[in-house]
Amino acid sequence: SDKGHKGNSTSEQILRVLVVQFIEQASFRDIVVLIENSEFLRNFIRLGPHPMMDFNFLNKAFGIIGQQTWAAINQVLVKYAEQQSKISSEKLCMDTTVYEANIHYPTDSSLLWDSFRTLAGLLCAIGRKNPRLCFQHRFHDKKVKKLAYFIARNGASPKKGMQRWVKAIYHTLIDRVGWIARITREVLITLGNQAGYDTNLLRHYLSLVEKIIDQAEKRVFQGVMPPAADKGFYESMTQIVAMEETITTVSIGKKGRRNEQQEQRESCEAFKEGQRFRAGCEDSISILKTSL
């Protein structure tokens, strides 16, 4: 652009600025002032005698970085951490940040609605790009949204009659999502490897949608709850004991009061180390959630 920032900033410098922003948890305006007034940060950014980038430039530069680039950066960092023995397969941090509570009716219904909405949007974009493909489908997004909202409002009702009605609505909702998943598979077969179409995103979401449908069907109609590894997801200490038969250290605390044996279990150094490890991961997750 012939307006705005006039410096010759490199990709590395921009990335270093974003690293500082993630660590400091500051806005683009504040981070510009912070770096400009810090000799240490100016050296870290490698500005030299050049002026600091303005916040509008940083905002635009951050918006240009795509999802694939972030994935590539993550892979580089993971590989480096493995080489430096910072991480290993001996420790595995599992966190269920998608859910605020155990799996319940509104959560599954919202996932199904998101599945329908996402696939419908991608299919409509492909249809607009090439009308000759003639996708003769009306997706009726609003009707599907009403189904999901009905479940969200009434899923926790204690009335047996309402629960039967919710299950019937679930059946309709799952059928609609399954229908659009079948259309998506047909579109992928039709497009094949035609030039001008990137079907990777469509394939990616289709695989996720199929998992969501399978999870909802098992939970709603078969009563099979999906496994989880968070403190709020286990039913009793029996499950923890069973996990400890195959896992050396299960750093999941007991809910409620503890007896003497349970107090000793949670006061050992291995358990505390696991909790510290988890706390660091939670902090990193929090930074990502508030920054991206």
How would you portray this structure in words?
With 292 residues, this protein is mostly helical. Helices cover 65% and strands 0% of the residues. The chain is built from 12 helices and no strands. It has helices spanning 11-24, 28-36, 39-45, 55-64, 67-83, 105-129, 141-154, 160-191, 200-222, 237-244, 260-267, 269-291. α6 packs antiparallel against α7 and α6 (105-129) runs parallel beside α8 (160-191).
Parts with pLDDT < 50 across at least 5 consecutive residues: 99-106
- Gyration radius, rounded: 25 Å
Tell me the fraction of residues in β-strands, as a range. under 5%
> What structural category arises from helix and sheet content?
mainly alpha
Annotation, overall tally of beta strands? 0
SSE string, helix = H, strand = E? HHHHHHHHHHHH
Average pLDDT figure: 81
Helix content range of the residues, please?
A: 55-70%
Short description:
The protein is mainly alpha-helical. It has helices spanning 11-24, 28-36, 39-45, 55-64, 67-83, 105-129, 141-154, 160-191, 200-222, 237-244, 260-267, 269-291. The longest helix is centred in the middle third of the chain and has 32 residues, at 160-191.
Any key phrases for this structure?
292 residues; mainly alpha; 65% helix; flat
Topology, please?
Blueprint: H1 11-24, H2 28-36, H3 39-45, H4 55-64, H5 67-83, H6 105-129, H7 141-154, H8 160-191, H9 200-222, H10 237-244, H11 260-267, H12 269-291
Helix pairs in contact: 2-4, 6-7, 6-8, 6-9, 7-8, 8-9
